[in-house]
């Protein structure tokens, strides 16, 4: 006797999921397990492993440079994530309605996201570099003097945040746009007939129905801000973590420990703790928001 319809559907579903599951296992789970194993050893850079137990984790408690990188990363996350969220949602609301040239406007906002971050970093470095950069010359022309946008710790960090928002806002705009298009237009029309204004319609109709999309954007942008490409590529190209470690994020610090100082075991220990922290934070967000499906 052949398989039942339910069983055939289950087999088909697992078959479609198999490539992603295999990729997740090979490229995420296995490296995480290996990193956890390496974190228990001191690696001399020539293939020599010395078991040190939890020494690498204990070392983290007294590492002032690591603390600085954690503070930079924390400030970056709490500034970048909400700013990118608001800007992306505003852009999605702007281009949601069809008007002449809306396709070109959407494309223009999304184009930065398809450019290599190394190229993006080089272009912005050309614009911002002291004395020779276009932005620096423009500021000097309007009477602000020689402003070092990448040489001043505060301005370098602000520039890093602005460039990150500019790079990612097109992608998040499309996510919000998809969420907005999934909201039945009848709800907005009914609220309009009842006399609700634009802000009231957004607050009581659009925003509640957009919460699952918003949750996805917050989670992915947070993970991306901590571990994503812009957390490393832009820093590496623009500032090399400087000036005065003002843009040295946790990912860049891990890179320096592993590939500059050869502390592979210590870098693996930091990575293990960072991944564990992200898993816990994501789990807490899912638990208290039910995946963005808030009550009320």
UniProtKB/TrEMBL annotation:
Any one Gene Ontology BP term: transmembrane transport
Superkingdom field: Bacteria
Protein name: Multiple sugar transport system permease protein
Membrane-topology descriptor: Multi-pass membrane protein
Residue intervals of the ABC transmembrane type-1 domain: 70-285
Keyword Protease among record annotations: no
Keywords: Cell membrane, Membrane, Sugar transport, Transmembrane, Transmembrane helix, Transport
Alphabetized InterPro entries for the sequence: ABC_transporter_permease, MetI-like, MetI-like_sf
Coiled coil: none
Main location: membrane
Entries under Pfam families matching the protein: BPD_transp_1
Subcellular localization: Cell membrane
Similarity comment: Belongs to the binding-protein-dependent transport system permease family.
Transmembrane segments: 12-41, 74-95, 107-127, 157-180, 209-232, 264-286
UniProt organism field: Actinocrispum wychmicini
Family matches, as SUPFAM superfamilies: MetI-like
One cellular component (GO) term of this entry: plasma membrane
């Amino acid at each position: 006797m052949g398989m039942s319809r339910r069983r055939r559907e289950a087999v088909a579903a697992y078959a479609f999921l198999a490539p992603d599951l295999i990729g997740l296992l090979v490229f995420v789970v296995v490296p995480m397990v290996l990193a956890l194993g390496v974190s228990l050893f001191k690696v001399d850079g020539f293939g020599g492993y010395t078991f040190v137990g939890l020494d690498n984790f204990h070392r983290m408690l007294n590492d002032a440079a690591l603390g600085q990188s954690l503070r930079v990363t924390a400030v970056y996350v709490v500034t970048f994530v909400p700013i990118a969220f608001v800007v992306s949602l505003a852009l999605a609301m702007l281009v949601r309605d069809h008007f002449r040239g809306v396709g070109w406007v959407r494309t223009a906002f999304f184009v930065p996201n398809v450019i290599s971050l190394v190229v993006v970093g080089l272009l912005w470095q050309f614009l911002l570099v002291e004395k020779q950069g276009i932005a620096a010359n423009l500021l000097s022309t309007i009477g602000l003097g020689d402003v070092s946008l990448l040489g001043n710790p505060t301005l370098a960090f602000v520039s890093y945040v602005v460039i990150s928002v500019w790079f990612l806002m097109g992608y998040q705009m499309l996510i919000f746009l998809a969420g907005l298009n999934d909201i039945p237009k009848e709800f907005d029309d009914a609220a309009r007939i009842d006399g609700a204004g634009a802000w009231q319609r957004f607050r009581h109709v659009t925003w509640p129905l957009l919460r699952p999309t918003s949750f996805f954007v917050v989670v992915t942008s947070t993970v991306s801000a901590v571990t994503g490409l812009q957390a490393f590529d832009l820093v590496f190209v623009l500032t090399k973590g400087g000036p005065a470690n003002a843009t040295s994020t946790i990912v860049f610090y891990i890179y320096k420990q592993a590939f500059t100082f050869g502390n592979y075991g210590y870098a693996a220990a930091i990575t293990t703790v960072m991944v564990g922290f992200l898993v816990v934070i994501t789990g807490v967000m899912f638990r208290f928001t039910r995946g963005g499906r808030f009550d009320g």
